[in-house]
Specification:
The protein has helices at 16-23, 76-88, 93-96, 108-121, 133-141, 156-171, 180-195, 202-211, 244-250, 283-291, 310-320, 389-402; strands at residues 3-8, 29-32, 41-45, 48-52, 65-68, 73-74, 97-100, 104-105, 198-200, 216-219, 257-265, 268-270, 304-306, 308-309, 324-328, 338-347, 350-352, 364-372, 406-410, 418-420. By secondary structure, the chain is an alpha/beta fold.
Length: 422
Protein backbone atom coordinates (compact mmCIF):
# COMPACT_ATOMS: atom_id res chain seq x y z
CA UNK A 1 0.00 0.00 0.00
CA UNK A 2 1.03 3.64 0.08
CA UNK A 3 2.01 6.29 2.54
CA UNK A 4 0.00 9.51 2.94
CA UNK A 5 1.38 12.67 4.49
CA UNK A 6 -0.20 15.39 6.61
CA UNK A 7 1.80 18.53 7.23
CA UNK A 8 1.51 22.21 8.10
CA UNK A 9 1.53 24.84 5.36
CA UNK A 10 2.04 27.93 7.53
CA UNK A 11 4.28 28.57 10.58
CA UNK A 12 3.09 25.60 12.66
CA UNK A 13 0.14 25.05 15.02
CA UNK A 14 -2.29 24.64 12.14
CA UNK A 15 -4.12 21.84 13.96
CA UNK A 16 -2.09 18.85 12.74
CA UNK A 17 -2.63 16.86 15.97
CA UNK A 18 -6.41 17.18 15.72
CA UNK A 19 -6.61 16.06 12.09
CA UNK A 20 -4.12 13.20 12.47
CA UNK A 21 -6.29 11.93 15.33
CA UNK A 22 -9.41 12.27 13.14
CA UNK A 23 -7.79 10.43 10.22
CA UNK A 24 -6.08 7.69 12.27
CA UNK A 25 -8.91 5.10 11.90
CA UNK A 26 -8.02 4.96 8.17
CA UNK A 27 -4.42 3.91 8.90
CA UNK A 28 -2.42 1.08 10.48
CA UNK A 29 0.59 3.22 11.37
CA UNK A 30 1.12 6.90 12.23
CA UNK A 31 4.74 8.04 11.92
CA UNK A 32 6.48 11.26 13.01
CA UNK A 33 9.37 12.06 10.65
CA UNK A 34 11.07 15.19 12.01
CA UNK A 35 11.20 17.77 14.77
CA UNK A 36 11.02 16.94 18.43
CA UNK A 37 9.49 18.35 21.59
CA UNK A 38 9.39 21.84 20.04
CA UNK A 39 6.09 20.50 18.66
CA UNK A 40 2.87 20.69 20.65
CA UNK A 41 0.00 18.80 19.02
CA UNK A 42 -3.39 19.20 20.70
CA UNK A 43 -6.12 16.54 20.62
CA UNK A 44 -9.62 17.02 22.04
CA UNK A 45 -12.29 14.35 22.37
CA UNK A 46 -14.82 13.12 24.94
CA UNK A 47 -14.01 16.03 27.24
CA UNK A 48 -10.28 15.26 27.19
CA UNK A 49 -7.71 17.80 26.02
CA UNK A 50 -4.24 16.37 25.52
CA UNK A 51 -1.02 17.84 24.13
CA UNK A 52 1.59 15.55 22.54
CA UNK A 53 5.19 16.61 21.91
CA UNK A 54 7.14 13.57 20.74
CA UNK A 55 4.53 10.83 20.55
CA UNK A 56 2.56 10.64 17.28
CA UNK A 57 -1.08 11.76 17.34
CA UNK A 58 -2.51 8.30 16.59
CA UNK A 59 -1.74 7.08 20.11
CA UNK A 60 -5.36 7.24 21.35
CA UNK A 61 -6.54 4.65 18.83
CA UNK A 62 -6.08 1.05 20.00
CA UNK A 63 -4.46 -1.28 17.48
CA UNK A 64 -2.71 1.51 15.58
CA UNK A 65 1.09 1.59 15.77
CA UNK A 66 2.83 4.92 16.35
CA UNK A 67 6.37 5.21 15.05
CA UNK A 68 8.88 7.86 16.09
CA UNK A 69 11.07 7.94 12.98
CA UNK A 70 14.82 8.40 12.54
CA UNK A 71 14.35 12.06 11.58
CA UNK A 72 12.95 12.95 15.00
CA UNK A 73 15.07 14.25 17.90
CA UNK A 74 14.08 12.86 21.29
CA UNK A 75 14.41 14.36 24.74
CA UNK A 76 14.20 11.34 27.09
CA UNK A 77 12.99 13.61 29.92
CA UNK A 78 10.00 14.89 27.95
CA UNK A 79 9.31 11.49 26.41
CA UNK A 80 9.12 9.90 29.87
CA UNK A 81 6.72 12.62 31.05
CA UNK A 82 4.54 12.05 28.00
CA UNK A 83 4.51 8.28 28.50
CA UNK A 84 3.70 8.57 32.22
CA UNK A 85 0.75 10.90 31.51
CA UNK A 86 -0.64 8.54 28.89
CA UNK A 87 -0.21 5.51 31.16
CA UNK A 88 -2.27 7.36 33.80
CA UNK A 89 -4.99 7.76 31.17
CA UNK A 90 -4.89 4.03 30.47
CA UNK A 91 -3.05 4.25 27.14
CA UNK A 92 -0.58 1.40 26.78
CA UNK A 93 2.18 3.38 25.09
CA UNK A 94 4.70 0.53 25.22
CA UNK A 95 2.37 -1.69 23.23
CA UNK A 96 1.50 0.96 20.65
CA UNK A 97 4.71 2.93 20.13
CA UNK A 98 7.93 2.03 18.32
CA UNK A 99 11.08 4.13 18.28
CA UNK A 100 13.75 4.27 15.59
CA UNK A 101 17.25 3.28 16.63
CA UNK A 102 18.51 6.09 14.43
CA UNK A 103 16.58 8.94 16.06
CA UNK A 104 18.97 11.39 17.75
CA UNK A 105 18.98 12.21 21.44
CA UNK A 106 18.62 15.67 22.96
CA UNK A 107 21.09 15.95 25.85
CA UNK A 108 20.72 18.38 28.77
CA UNK A 109 23.68 20.31 27.36
CA UNK A 110 21.91 20.70 23.99
CA UNK A 111 19.23 22.67 25.82
CA UNK A 112 21.88 24.81 27.51
CA UNK A 113 23.53 25.47 24.14
CA UNK A 114 20.15 26.47 22.68
CA UNK A 115 19.72 29.00 25.47
CA UNK A 116 23.28 30.31 25.14
CA UNK A 117 22.84 30.73 21.39
CA UNK A 118 19.61 32.68 21.78
CA UNK A 119 21.17 34.96 24.43
CA UNK A 120 24.15 35.59 22.16
CA UNK A 121 21.89 36.53 19.26
CA UNK A 122 20.27 39.26 21.38
CA UNK A 123 17.57 41.11 19.47
CA UNK A 124 18.07 38.80 16.47
CA UNK A 125 17.08 35.73 18.46
CA UNK A 126 15.02 33.07 16.66
CA UNK A 127 12.48 32.77 19.46
CA UNK A 128 13.36 29.09 19.82
CA UNK A 129 11.28 26.88 22.10
CA UNK A 130 14.62 26.20 23.88
CA UNK A 131 14.09 22.45 23.69
CA UNK A 132 17.60 21.89 22.30
CA UNK A 133 16.41 21.25 18.75
CA UNK A 134 18.99 23.34 16.85
CA UNK A 135 22.10 22.09 18.75
CA UNK A 136 20.92 18.46 18.46
CA UNK A 137 20.47 18.65 14.68
CA UNK A 138 23.84 20.47 14.50
CA UNK A 139 25.49 17.52 16.25
CA UNK A 140 23.65 15.15 13.89
CA UNK A 141 24.97 16.86 10.74
CA UNK A 142 28.32 17.50 12.45
CA UNK A 143 28.52 13.72 13.00
CA UNK A 144 28.85 13.98 16.75
CA UNK A 145 25.33 13.05 17.84
CA UNK A 146 24.09 10.26 20.08
CA UNK A 147 21.30 8.06 18.78
CA UNK A 148 18.65 5.96 20.48
CA UNK A 149 20.50 2.77 19.43
CA UNK A 150 23.53 3.96 21.41
CA UNK A 151 21.71 3.63 24.73
CA UNK A 152 21.70 -0.15 24.22
CA UNK A 153 25.49 -0.32 23.79
CA UNK A 154 28.03 -0.85 26.57
CA UNK A 155 29.97 2.33 25.82
CA UNK A 156 26.98 4.72 26.05
CA UNK A 157 28.34 6.45 29.19
CA UNK A 158 31.68 7.12 27.48
CA UNK A 159 30.05 8.48 24.35
CA UNK A 160 27.80 10.65 26.50
CA UNK A 161 30.73 12.01 28.53
CA UNK A 162 32.71 12.80 25.37
CA UNK A 163 29.91 14.81 23.81
CA UNK A 164 29.13 16.62 27.06
CA UNK A 165 32.79 17.62 27.38
CA UNK A 166 32.65 19.13 23.92
CA UNK A 167 29.51 21.06 24.86
CA UNK A 168 30.99 22.29 28.14
CA UNK A 169 33.97 23.66 26.24
CA UNK A 170 31.62 25.75 24.12
CA UNK A 171 29.54 26.81 27.11
CA UNK A 172 32.71 28.17 28.81
CA UNK A 173 32.54 31.05 26.34
CA UNK A 174 29.01 31.95 27.42
CA UNK A 175 27.87 33.58 30.59
CA UNK A 176 25.26 30.99 31.50
CA UNK A 177 24.55 29.61 34.93
CA UNK A 178 23.52 25.97 35.20
CA UNK A 179 23.54 22.91 37.41
CA UNK A 180 24.33 20.02 35.08
CA UNK A 181 24.04 17.35 37.78
CA UNK A 182 20.45 18.42 38.49
CA UNK A 183 19.64 18.24 34.77
CA UNK A 184 21.30 14.86 34.35
CA UNK A 185 19.20 13.08 36.99
CA UNK A 186 15.90 13.18 35.03
CA UNK A 187 17.88 12.64 31.81
CA UNK A 188 19.24 9.28 32.96
CA UNK A 189 15.84 8.31 34.38
CA UNK A 190 14.47 9.04 30.92
CA UNK A 191 17.18 6.90 29.35
CA UNK A 192 16.08 3.96 31.55
CA UNK A 193 12.49 4.41 30.34
CA UNK A 194 13.71 4.62 26.75
CA UNK A 195 15.62 1.33 27.09
CA UNK A 196 12.39 -0.47 27.98
CA UNK A 197 10.55 0.75 24.87
CA UNK A 198 10.40 -1.11 21.57
CA UNK A 199 13.45 0.18 19.72
CA UNK A 200 13.49 -0.86 16.07
CA UNK A 201 15.05 -0.42 12.65
CA UNK A 202 12.09 1.70 11.65
CA UNK A 203 12.98 2.00 7.96
CA UNK A 204 12.71 -1.81 7.62
CA UNK A 205 9.58 -1.96 9.75
CA UNK A 206 7.80 0.71 7.71
CA UNK A 207 8.80 -0.62 4.30
CA UNK A 208 7.80 -4.17 5.29
CA UNK A 209 4.48 -2.81 6.53
CA UNK A 210 3.85 -1.17 3.15
CA UNK A 211 4.77 -4.41 1.37
CA UNK A 212 2.29 -6.37 3.45
CA UNK A 213 -0.55 -4.00 2.52
CA UNK A 214 -0.56 -1.67 5.53
CA UNK A 215 -1.35 2.05 5.31
CA UNK A 216 0.90 4.69 6.85
CA UNK A 217 0.21 8.34 7.64
CA UNK A 218 3.28 10.54 8.13
CA UNK A 219 2.61 13.31 10.66
CA UNK A 220 4.51 16.56 10.19
CA UNK A 221 5.62 18.88 12.95
CA UNK A 222 6.09 22.66 12.68
CA UNK A 223 5.11 24.05 9.26
CA UNK A 224 6.48 24.72 5.78
CA UNK A 225 7.54 28.29 6.56
CA UNK A 226 9.71 26.92 9.39
CA UNK A 227 11.50 24.46 7.05
CA UNK A 228 15.30 24.73 7.28
CA UNK A 229 15.63 25.11 3.47
CA UNK A 230 12.40 26.74 2.34
CA UNK A 231 11.21 28.62 5.42
CA UNK A 232 11.89 32.20 6.47
CA UNK A 233 15.58 31.49 7.19
CA UNK A 234 17.18 32.04 9.69
CA UNK A 235 13.88 32.26 11.60
CA UNK A 236 13.12 28.59 11.10
CA UNK A 237 13.55 25.28 12.87
CA UNK A 238 16.43 22.90 12.08
CA UNK A 239 14.67 20.14 10.13
CA UNK A 240 12.90 19.64 6.81
CA UNK A 241 9.26 20.04 7.72
CA UNK A 242 8.18 19.49 4.11
CA UNK A 243 7.13 16.35 2.17
CA UNK A 244 10.76 15.67 1.23
CA UNK A 245 11.48 15.26 4.95
CA UNK A 246 9.26 12.17 5.10
CA UNK A 247 11.68 10.25 2.89
CA UNK A 248 14.79 11.12 4.88
CA UNK A 249 12.97 11.05 8.22
CA UNK A 250 11.37 7.64 7.75
CA UNK A 251 13.36 5.92 5.00
CA UNK A 252 10.34 5.68 2.72
CA UNK A 253 11.04 6.44 -0.94
CA UNK A 254 9.19 9.32 -2.63
CA UNK A 255 7.43 6.96 -5.08
CA UNK A 256 5.58 5.35 -2.16
CA UNK A 257 3.83 8.62 -1.27
CA UNK A 258 0.21 8.99 -2.36
CA UNK A 259 -1.96 11.68 -0.74
CA UNK A 260 -0.34 14.83 0.65
CA UNK A 261 -2.72 16.73 2.90
CA UNK A 262 -1.72 20.33 3.53
CA UNK A 263 -3.26 21.90 6.61
CA UNK A 264 -3.78 25.63 7.20
CA UNK A 265 -5.79 27.98 9.37
CA UNK A 266 -8.56 30.13 7.85
CA UNK A 267 -6.26 32.97 9.02
CA UNK A 268 -2.56 32.78 9.99
CA UNK A 269 -0.36 32.67 13.08
CA UNK A 270 3.30 32.54 13.96
CA UNK A 271 5.10 32.12 17.28
CA UNK A 272 8.67 33.35 17.68
CA UNK A 273 10.58 35.92 15.62
CA UNK A 274 10.78 36.44 11.88
CA UNK A 275 8.86 37.83 8.91
CA UNK A 276 5.07 37.52 8.87
CA UNK A 277 3.76 39.79 6.10
CA UNK A 278 0.04 39.59 7.00
CA UNK A 279 0.53 40.03 10.75
CA UNK A 280 -2.06 42.24 12.46
CA UNK A 281 -0.06 43.60 15.36
CA UNK A 282 -3.12 45.50 16.59
CA UNK A 283 -6.68 45.07 17.86
CA UNK A 284 -7.66 42.73 15.04
CA UNK A 285 -4.72 40.45 15.84
CA UNK A 286 -5.70 40.54 19.51
CA UNK A 287 -9.29 39.67 18.63
CA UNK A 288 -8.15 36.63 16.60
CA UNK A 289 -5.78 35.61 19.43
CA UNK A 290 -8.56 35.69 22.02
CA UNK A 291 -11.17 33.99 19.83
CA UNK A 292 -8.72 31.34 18.60
CA UNK A 293 -6.97 30.85 21.97
CA UNK A 294 -3.73 31.48 20.13
CA UNK A 295 -1.21 30.69 22.85
CA UNK A 296 1.60 28.16 22.27
CA UNK A 297 0.85 24.52 23.16
CA UNK A 298 4.53 23.99 24.10
CA UNK A 299 5.68 27.30 25.55
CA UNK A 300 2.41 29.13 26.34
CA UNK A 301 3.71 32.16 24.43
CA UNK A 302 1.26 34.47 22.65
CA UNK A 303 1.01 33.56 18.98
CA UNK A 304 1.25 36.44 16.54
CA UNK A 305 -1.98 36.61 14.50
CA UNK A 306 -2.94 37.89 11.07
CA UNK A 307 -4.80 37.16 7.83
CA UNK A 308 -4.47 34.28 5.41
CA UNK A 309 -1.68 34.77 2.89
CA UNK A 310 -2.20 33.26 -0.59
CA UNK A 311 1.32 33.82 -2.04
CA UNK A 312 2.68 32.06 1.06
CA UNK A 313 0.19 29.18 0.80
CA UNK A 314 0.80 28.75 -2.96
CA UNK A 315 4.52 28.46 -2.24
CA UNK A 316 3.91 25.84 0.46
CA UNK A 317 1.57 23.84 -1.81
CA UNK A 318 4.22 23.87 -4.55
CA UNK A 319 7.11 22.79 -2.30
CA UNK A 320 5.08 19.96 -0.75
CA UNK A 321 3.14 18.73 -3.78
CA UNK A 322 -0.07 19.06 -1.78
CA UNK A 323 -2.96 17.03 -3.24
CA UNK A 324 -5.69 18.18 -0.84
CA UNK A 325 -6.22 20.77 1.85
CA UNK A 326 -7.67 20.90 5.35
CA UNK A 327 -8.86 24.34 6.49
CA UNK A 328 -8.83 24.75 10.26
CA UNK A 329 -10.39 27.08 12.80
CA UNK A 330 -13.01 28.54 10.46
CA UNK A 331 -15.18 29.06 13.58
CA UNK A 332 -12.69 31.60 14.94
CA UNK A 333 -13.84 34.00 12.18
CA UNK A 334 -17.57 33.47 12.92
CA UNK A 335 -18.14 36.99 14.24
CA UNK A 336 -16.16 38.98 11.65
CA UNK A 337 -18.11 41.23 9.23
CA UNK A 338 -15.21 41.14 6.81
CA UNK A 339 -12.38 38.66 6.33
CA UNK A 340 -9.21 39.68 4.57
CA UNK A 341 -7.22 37.54 2.15
CA UNK A 342 -3.75 38.60 1.00
CA UNK A 343 -3.53 38.07 -2.76
CA UNK A 344 -0.23 39.83 -3.51
CA UNK A 345 2.50 41.87 -1.86
CA UNK A 346 3.89 45.32 -2.57
CA UNK A 347 7.64 44.83 -2.25
CA UNK A 348 10.21 47.55 -2.94
CA UNK A 349 7.59 49.46 -4.96
CA UNK A 350 6.50 46.52 -7.09
CA UNK A 351 3.51 44.21 -6.91
CA UNK A 352 4.68 40.60 -6.54
CA UNK A 353 2.89 37.29 -5.96
CA UNK A 354 5.72 35.26 -4.42
CA UNK A 355 7.50 35.18 -1.06
CA UNK A 356 10.73 37.22 -1.45
CA UNK A 357 14.19 35.90 -0.47
CA UNK A 358 14.49 38.26 2.47
CA UNK A 359 12.02 40.56 4.13
CA UNK A 360 13.19 43.38 6.32
CA UNK A 361 10.83 45.21 8.62
CA UNK A 362 8.44 47.51 6.74
CA UNK A 363 9.64 46.30 3.34
CA UNK A 364 6.61 44.25 2.43
CA UNK A 365 2.98 45.39 2.31
CA UNK A 366 0.20 42.87 1.71
CA UNK A 367 -2.49 43.62 -0.88
CA UNK A 368 -5.87 42.39 0.37
CA UNK A 369 -9.15 41.21 -1.07
CA UNK A 370 -12.10 41.64 1.28
CA UNK A 371 -14.51 38.75 1.75
CA UNK A 372 -17.94 38.99 3.38
CA UNK A 373 -18.04 37.16 6.73
CA UNK A 374 -20.60 34.38 7.37
CA UNK A 375 -21.67 35.68 10.80
CA UNK A 376 -22.91 32.23 11.83
CA UNK A 377 -21.95 29.94 14.68
CA UNK A 378 -20.20 27.09 12.87
CA UNK A 379 -19.26 25.09 15.94
CA UNK A 380 -22.32 22.82 15.94
CA UNK A 381 -22.47 22.20 12.22
CA UNK A 382 -21.55 18.65 11.24
CA UNK A 383 -22.56 18.48 7.58
CA UNK A 384 -21.39 20.41 4.52
CA UNK A 385 -24.98 21.08 3.46
CA UNK A 386 -25.59 23.17 6.60
CA UNK A 387 -22.63 25.49 6.08
CA UNK A 388 -23.48 29.15 5.37
CA UNK A 389 -23.27 30.33 1.77
CA UNK A 390 -20.54 32.91 2.54
CA UNK A 391 -18.27 30.20 3.97
CA UNK A 392 -18.89 27.94 0.97
CA UNK A 393 -17.95 30.87 -1.27
CA UNK A 394 -14.77 31.46 0.79
CA UNK A 395 -13.87 27.76 0.39
CA UNK A 396 -14.59 27.83 -3.37
CA UNK A 397 -12.49 31.00 -3.77
CA UNK A 398 -9.53 29.46 -1.93
CA UNK A 399 -9.80 26.22 -3.91
CA UNK A 400 -9.71 28.17 -7.17
CA UNK A 401 -6.78 30.39 -6.14
CA UNK A 402 -4.79 27.52 -4.61
CA UNK A 403 -5.71 25.08 -7.39
CA UNK A 404 -6.23 22.36 -4.79
CA UNK A 405 -9.42 20.88 -3.31
CA UNK A 406 -10.32 21.48 0.35
CA UNK A 407 -11.41 18.11 1.74
CA UNK A 408 -11.82 19.06 5.40
CA UNK A 409 -13.20 22.16 7.12
CA UNK A 410 -12.66 22.23 10.88
CA UNK A 411 -15.12 24.19 13.04
CA UNK A 412 -13.86 23.58 16.58
CA UNK A 413 -11.10 21.81 18.52
CA UNK A 414 -13.04 18.60 19.14
CA UNK A 415 -12.67 15.50 16.98
CA UNK A 416 -16.37 15.75 16.15
CA UNK A 417 -16.16 19.35 14.94
CA UNK A 418 -14.78 18.25 11.59
CA UNK A 419 -16.67 18.54 8.30
CA UNK A 420 -15.79 16.32 5.39
CA UNK A 421 -16.18 18.24 2.11
CA UNK A 422 -17.38 16.31 -0.91
P1 LIG B 1 -0.57 21.57 15.85
O1 LIG B 1 0.75 21.91 16.43
O2 LIG B 1 -0.61 21.80 14.36
O3 LIG B 1 -1.06 20.20 16.20
O4 LIG B 1 -1.62 22.60 16.47
P2 LIG B 1 -1.70 23.06 18.02
O5 LIG B 1 -2.30 21.97 18.81
O6 LIG B 1 -0.42 23.64 18.48
O7 LIG B 1 -2.67 24.31 17.89
C1 LIG B 1 -3.95 24.22 17.35
C2 LIG B 1 -4.94 24.70 18.42
O8 LIG B 1 -6.20 24.94 17.83
C3 LIG B 1 -5.19 23.66 19.50
O9 LIG B 1 -5.49 24.32 20.71
C4 LIG B 1 -6.44 22.92 19.00
O10 LIG B 1 -7.19 22.34 20.02
C5 LIG B 1 -7.18 24.06 18.35
N1 LIG B 1 -8.03 23.71 17.20
C6 LIG B 1 -7.78 22.80 16.22
N2 LIG B 1 -8.74 22.88 15.27
C7 LIG B 1 -9.58 23.85 15.65
C8 LIG B 1 -10.76 24.42 15.07
O11 LIG B 1 -11.21 24.07 13.99
N3 LIG B 1 -11.36 25.46 15.77
C9 LIG B 1 -10.88 25.90 16.96
N4 LIG B 1 -11.51 26.90 17.55
N5 LIG B 1 -9.78 25.39 17.52
C10 LIG B 1 -9.14 24.38 16.87
P1 LIG C 1 4.08 22.43 15.99
O1 LIG C 1 4.47 21.03 15.55
C1 LIG C 1 4.95 26.68 15.99
C2 LIG C 1 9.14 27.86 16.09
C3 LIG C 1 9.67 28.55 17.33
C4 LIG C 1 10.78 29.39 16.74
C5 LIG C 1 11.34 28.51 15.63
C6 LIG C 1 12.56 27.70 16.04
O2 LIG C 1 3.35 22.45 17.28
O3 LIG C 1 3.36 23.13 14.89
P2 LIG C 1 13.05 25.64 17.65
O4 LIG C 1 12.57 25.33 19.02
O5 LIG C 1 12.67 24.62 16.62
O6 LIG C 1 14.50 25.98 17.61
O7 LIG C 1 12.29 27.02 17.25
O8 LIG C 1 10.29 27.63 15.27
N1 LIG C 1 8.51 26.55 16.33
C7 LIG C 1 7.18 26.35 16.24
N2 LIG C 1 6.18 27.22 16.03
N3 LIG C 1 4.68 25.36 16.13
C8 LIG C 1 5.69 24.48 16.30
O9 LIG C 1 5.49 23.16 16.30
C9 LIG C 1 7.01 24.96 16.41
N4 LIG C 1 8.21 24.39 16.62
C10 LIG C 1 9.12 25.37 16.55
O10 LIG C 1 8.68 29.32 17.95
O11 LIG C 1 10.23 30.53 16.14
MG1 LIG D 1 1.55 23.13 17.95
Amino acid sequence: MAMDVLLGLQWGDEGKGKIVDVLTPQYDIIARFQGGPNAGHTLEFEGIKHVLHTIPSGIFHKGVKNVVGNGVVIDPVILKEEIDKLLEMGVDVNEQMLISKKAHLILPTHKLLDKASEIAKGKNKIGSTLKGIGPTYMDKTGRNGLRVGDVLEDNFSEKYAQLVEKHLNILKHHDLEYDLKALEKPFFEGIETLKKLTIIDSEHYLNNALKSGKNILAEGAQGTMLDIDFGTYPFVTSSNTTTAGTSTGLGIAPNKIEKIVGIFKAYCTRVGSGPFPTEEDNETGEQIRQLGHEFGATTGRERRCGWIDLPQLKYAIMINGVTELAMMKADVLDTFDTIKVCTHYMYKGEQIDYFPYSVNEGEIEPVYKKIKGWKTDLTKITDQKDLPQELLEYVAYLEKELETPISIVSVGPDRKQTIEMK
